[in-house]
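Much of what follows relies on a compact textual record of a protein's fold. Here is one such record, which you should read through line by line:
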Amino acid sequence: MGWWLRFRKNERGFSLAEILVAGLILVWGLIPVIGMFDQSFKGFRNMRKIQQSVNCAKAAMEQIRNIPFYEPHNTSNLDKNLDIDDRFWGSRDPMNSNPSRVDGSGNSVPDWENIPKVTFYDYGTFAGYEDYKVAVQLSYLNDDTGVATMKSTWGPKVVGHDRPTNSDNRVLHLLMARVIVYISSGGTDQEAYSLESVITDTEAVYNLGVSSIEVVGPDSIKDPTGKPNAAAHWSNPNVDVQVVIKGWGFDAVNDADGVVQAWLVRDKMYDTPITLNYWSETELRGKVTLYSGHNESSSVNPWTPKAAIGYWSVKVRQKGVLSAYLYNGFIVQYPQPVIADFGNDPDYGKTGLNIWNNARLKIKGGPFCFIQEKPAVRLVKLAEDGSVERQVNGTVVSVTAPSGSYGYASSPSCEIVATFDFTTAPPGEYRMQVVNTREPTMIGHVASDYSSAVYVIQEMTPRVDDVYVAATGSHTAYSNVGNPWRLAIVGNYFNSSGSPPVEVWL
């Protein structure tokens, strides 16, 4: 107990200086934490401002869309804003200008930097969005392809000339509107958000669609396998492709004014027009040229001037306003090659041995494509049911055609030379087939019919040079000792694989 009392008597507490130092350390450690909270609060405030600016732009766009697309002016109402362009076209010089620029893909798009910005709501005037300023820019569109050039006499409030009309005197029904939301920072306007939308005249809303396209003639360019929506891009002589487009909502009136128009379209290619000569609400008829004038729009290349093979989309446009598409609905093909004759080079013999690993054959016929790609050739052995039992692919060495034929010529003016490896081919009768081109499974690549003539691959007759007892090398064996004798037969052209197996006799 005495020891405990002495211990208690020597105990002392913290000094004031120690407490102040500890508090200072604690406060110093809390400063970064407080800063983190402050940054978080600022981030939340900024996110809220961004969301508010988005909502502000959407609300303004909805109000614009509810303004009439077009209302005619007369001398008594020129001071009124009756439709969208009356209020937001802005001051332009000349008044009918609609600034545009060409984008990286070569398309004409609105040049928003040069289109006047017209204030829709100033700060404090847009209920619910008093902290924001809203401006609007407009640009008329011809259709879904680009900005319109307005008619020289057009103006938003020019009596008798205020209906939106382009330089081709076609009434416009599409308008691109851009809403820009600003927020004031340091006395200057900073763009917080922008929103674009295409506004359509209610008069131009149609129930329009394309369901199919069918090639009805001529037979020379139709797909040999029966695809109804495919045609060759070349024939001899060249012909236009007759097509029928089926769908709904087509304008059945006289098409003399271009009420309904149709094209084949494909990325990076010029649009290929379909000239219509018949139209009803559910069917359009016309012709399209595939053999000239439809090369890649980016450059001139060896395809010129034929339409490129593969899928094309069908586009129908009505009254220059609304377009309907049948995506990848049409197939442009190579012409079907025809085999006039084939055989060994140079004599056209139709027999080969299964020991040939570099058999050289030539095929005469046409049309064979060879400028862009070489054709593919193959010998095919057919089963009794007509299915392919075995196929031997050739390697094309050369393709020749008459001068000036542009890669094609009529049978039998073209010739293919190819090599084949027969060492793995079972003997039998084979028929020749040519495919334009070397990718036989691709859309647009077309195969010839199997040749009527056959090529016979024969087995080489086996040759025996020596036979002896395998264990001793002796050419003598006794009938009553060592049976069965194991013999070695030495020679050539023995059937080492496949069927039937090798058989030997003494």
Q: What stands out?
A: The chain has a mean pLDDT of 83. The CA atoms of residues 368 and 408 lie 6 Å apart.
